[in-house]
Write a structure and sequence with these properties.
Elements lengths: L18 H7 L2 H4 L2 H7 L6 E5 L5 H7 L4 E6 L2 H10 L4 E4 L11 E7 L8 H11 E12 L5 H13 L16 H10 L2 E14 L6 H9 L9 H19 E2 L2 E15 L6
Parallel strand pairs: 1-2, 1-4, 2-3, 4-5
Antiparallel strand pairs: 5-8, 6-8, 7-8
Helix pairs in contact: 7-10
This protein binds benzoic acid (BEZ).
């Protein structure tokens, strides 16, 4: 993987995903979303947009309820993999900020993707635009306090190594429920469900779990740092976080997720 390879779906800056590694060892991202699908409650005949569909496993699950689903993701590697696994589903390379679709949908669904986009208002406007009147938006992504312990470890290690400026490369948007609800309402949505959930998540790979998580999702913080120095920083992050996140041979990520359901209403000024 390249240095700037990092996570998830409509991540506009970093989209060189290793889709196979993601599927093999970071599949918890889609597995955790199963009851989010209950909230979506897809109905036969509905048209649904899966925004940030990754390798398409949830997109496929939604189709099994009889809905017609389009999956979009800004990482071409993810879309290639999705197309290989599910050739009957329409997958497109696309971006939450520039959703280039003329069709409209009964629902927009998005799991573990929107924390990669730091222009949430643009995303919400695009979702509003592609929804039919009364259509629903169901999403879950990193909320306020998500991976706070991991971020603190990364920041402390960057400070200690003389690369404090790299803290500005933080790619994530983790809003509070209040902040996101206000944004949705100001863009013409009626919010019917909003919560923040603790979601401690065991990482794969045992002892190497955190190191691999950083290499998959957080390499942007190491941009411009020579390779050997990067290894030293990752070791330092591990040492700082071990007392908090490592137990019995397993690392646990301190995930917190915001979960939302909102409906498209009319806009006041239209
Ligand atoms: C998340 O799913 O909450 C997440 C994953 C990787 C990086 C940041 C957040």
């Amino acid at each position: 993987m390249e240095n700037n390879t990092t996570n998830n779906f409509p991540n506009r800056a970093f989209n060189q995903w290793d889709a196979q590694l993601y599927d093999r060892k970071h599949s918890f991202v889609s597995n955790l979303a199963i009851d989010l699908l209950e909230l979506l409650s897809p109905q036969s005949g509905e048209k649904i947009l899966d925004l940030g569909c990754g390798t398409g496993h949830l997109t496929y699950k939604i189709t099994t309820k009889g809905a017609k689903v389009v999956g979009i993701d800004n990482a071409p590697t993810m879309i290639e993999q999705a197309n290989r696994c599910y050739p009957d589903i329409k997958f497109l390379v696309g971006d939450g900020v520039n959703i280039d679709l003329k069709e409209t949908f009964d629902a927009v669904f998005s799991n573990a993707a929107l924390h990669w986009i730091k222009e949430p208002r643009e995303v919400i406007r695009n979702i509003w635009r592609v929804l039919k009147p009364g259509g629903r938006f169901v999403t879950e992504f990193g909320g306020k306090g998500n991976i706070q312990t991991i971020i603190s470890g990364i920041y402390e290690a960057l400070d200690a190594s003389g690369y404090s400026d790299n803290k500005q490369l933080n790619p994530w948007y983790f809003p509070s429920v209040g902040e996101y609800a206000t944004l949705l309402e100001s863009e013409g949505f009626l919010l019917t469900f909003a919560t923040l959930l603790e979601r401690p998540t065991k990482l794969e790979y045992g002892e190497s779990g955190l190191r691999n998580w950083i290499k998959m999702f957080a390499t942007c913080f190491l941009e411009g740092i020579p390779g050997k120095k990067q290894d030293t920083i990752i070791n330092d992050i591990e040492n700082r976080l071990r007392p908090h996140l490592y137990q019995k041979g397993k690392w646990t990520a301190d995930y917190k997720r915001i979960r939302i359901m909102a409906f498209k209403e009319g806009k006041l000024n239209q």
